[in-house]
Design goal:
Layout lengths: L11 H5 L19 H4 L12 H5 L15 E7 L39 E2 L13 H10 L15 E7 L9 H13 L4 E4 L8 H12 L3 E5 L19 E6 L17 E4 L3 E4 L6 H4 L11 E2 L5 E4 L2 H18 L5 H10 L20 H6 L6 E13 L2 E12 L2 E10 L10 H14 L8 E6 L2 E10 H7 L5 E10 L4 E9 L5 H7 L1
Parallel strand pairs: 1-3, 1-4, 2-3, 4-5, 5-6, 6-7
Antiparallel strand pairs: 8-10, 9-10, 11-12, 12-15, 13-14, 13-16, 16-17
Helix pairs in contact: 4-8, 5-6
Bound molecules: calcium ion (3 copies).
Length: about 500
């Protein structure tokens, strides 16, 4: 494996001298962006568009794009940035207005000559990317659009603040991540992209995320690529963050994408084309068995790279979020997060679920969703409680909305879960009858309770045996919560519940 060497990092000062030449002026005619990869497909033999994620989000096919109100500073806490890339314009980088290159900390923020960001790995002002991971993320958000080169970025009004916390192998110290979050918030970033893996989080990081939340800054995190539950897992557990999993180009969840109650939504994360930092090949660093060196490099000049992972899903969500924020700069981070999850396109099973969260990121829907159009239906947990000899189930969740009208909790036996009782002959007869007379479907939804707003707490408490009888003896149920607003918006959440099989006596008692 060829490791990037330090001499490859250009002198930041020398480069900054050239910065004025790098201006990216997006022109938004009716035409599609002229970046070659935007309209190409099959560049690595695939049957879909090179930039399928932008096509799917209809970033540049928006019929009447509202003009951006202002630039949005996006901090990328990652492996750094190849700021000399041909498809990154210098004017798309954040520039610290209060700092000059003079060996002094002009703005007194504790960082000497922090001109475009900071390198927390080497403790200097040059956040050069030796991995390529951070540059890939930056390119998705802010590659120069419509310059006739390479790819189109998602948000021409984003300004990138690279904060290098991870070395070429992607390893980062938690104290660096916490410091970088503070830096980003203090220096005016509105969104922070945090596509780093990690199983545990520290108190420092939790405090930093809380600081960001209080200051109205949205942190977008990657759900992770291990195909496991993300509850209390790594950065997904930070307060107020948007947790992004990966979807494939046909809109399904990618198998490697972590899931769980903390997942907010899915965004494209498979075969994502973006910028390649000079001489890097970060997929090779993780040494996958089926990967041949530089296989993921795309384009004749070898300046582009395709990769899969929730890191890039988070980057796409960050790009879309920053695009929305450029048009609605008054939104707080919490409002922006709410708007993105509320406008996500539901992915089966219906409603909020652990595999896809609120569904797939949907830029066009996010643009037309009013921030006040908040309606929440969530089933969080169902816990069992034995009181004397009776087993009760407590169902906890959220049912609320700005224009709340009503909420109902329903249940039904899970498909095929009604036990077959001994008289099989009788059963068969019943089935025949069903075709003729269409008696009530034993698997239909039954309403358990209707209620008012539940901000976060108990939706209902039910005696298990009563429900088991109502479910024809089934102990495997589907639960459904439906919340409706006065404006006719309906949101639902589903959960399956498997109960311990009750005493045979109790079941036969009924039959
Ligand atoms: Ca400074
Ligand atoms: Ca200085
Ligand atoms: Ca371009």
């Amino acid at each position: 494996m060829r490791l990037p060497s330090v001499w490859q990092a250009p002198l930041l000062l020398a480069y900054l001298g050239l910065l004025t030449a790098g201006i990216c002026v997006p022109t938004f005619a009716e035409n599609a962006p002229n970046d070659p990869h935007y309209s190409k497909e099959g560049s690595w033999g695939q049957t879909y568009a090179d930039q399928w994620a932008l096509q799917q989000q209809r970033v540049y096919t928006d019929i009447a794009p509202a003009p951006a109100q202002q630039d949005v500073i996006v901090a990328i806490i990652d492996t750094g940035l190849d700021y000399t890339h041909e498809d990154l314009a210098a004017d798309r980088l954040w520039r610290n207005p209060a700092e000059t290159k003079n060996g002094r900390d002009d703005d007194g923020n504790g960082y000497v000559d922090d001109l475009i960001g900071w390198n927390y790995v080497d403790h200097n002002n040059n956040p050069w990317d030796l991995s390529g991971h951070g540059t890939h993320i930056a390119g998705l958000i802010a590659a120069c659009t419509n310059n006739g080169i390479g790819i189109a970025g998602i948000n021409p009004d984003a300004r990138i603040m690279p904060l290098k916390v991870a070395n070429f192998a992607g390893q980062a110290r938690s104290s660096s991540v916490a410091a970088a979050i503070h830096y980003a918030v203090e220096q005016g970033a509105r969104i922070i992209n945090l596509s780093l893996a990690g199983e545990t989080i520290t108190e420092l990081e939790i405090q930093a995320a809380e600081f960001a939340r209080q200051r109205g800054v949205l942190i977008v995190v990657a759900a992770g690529n291990r195909g496991i539950g993300v509850d209390r897992f790594g950065y997904a557990a930070l307060p107020g963050v948007l947790v992004v999993g990966a979807s494939t180009h046909d809109g399904n969840r990618a198998g490697f994408s972590n899931f769980g109650a903390q997942l907010s939504l899915l965004a494209p994360g498979v075969e994502i084309l973006s910028l390649r930092a000079r001489d890097t090949d970060f997929i090779a660093l993780s040494q996958p068995l089926d990967y041949a060196s530089e296989d993921a490099v795309v384009g004749e000049g070898e300046h582009y790279y395709r990769a899969s992972g929730t890191s890039f899903s988070a980057a796409i969500a960050t790009g879309i979020a920053s695009r929305v924020l450029a048009r609605q700069p008054e939104l707080s981070g919490a409002q922006l997060r709410q708007l993105l999850i509320q406008s996500a396109a539901d992915i089966a099973p219906p409603g909020v679920d652990q595999l896809s969260g609120y569904g797939g990121l949907d830029y066009i829907a996010a643009l037309s969703t009013r921030p006040g159009q908040y309606v929440q239906a969530r089933l969080n947990t169902a816990s069992l409680e034995l009181i004397d000899t009776q087993l009760w189930v407590n169902i906890l969740g959220q049912a609320q909305g700005d224009e709340f009208a009503s909420a109902a909790l329903q249940f039904r036996p899970a498909a095929g879960s009604i036990p077959i009782v001994e008289e099989t002959g009788k059963k068969k007869k019943k089935k025949k009858k069903k075709r003729d007379a269409e008696p009530a479907d034993p698997y239909q939804w039954q309403t358990l309770a209707s209620f008012d707003n539940v901000v976060d707490g108990q939706l209902g408490r039910f005696e298990v045996n009563t429900l088991t009888r109502q479910a024809n003896g089934s102990t495997q149920w589907d639960l459904k919560l439906v919340v409706t607003t006065t404006t006719g918006v309906e949101r639902e959440a589903r959960m399956s519940l498997h109960l311990p099989v009750p005493d045979a006596a109790e079941v036969s008692d009924e039959s």
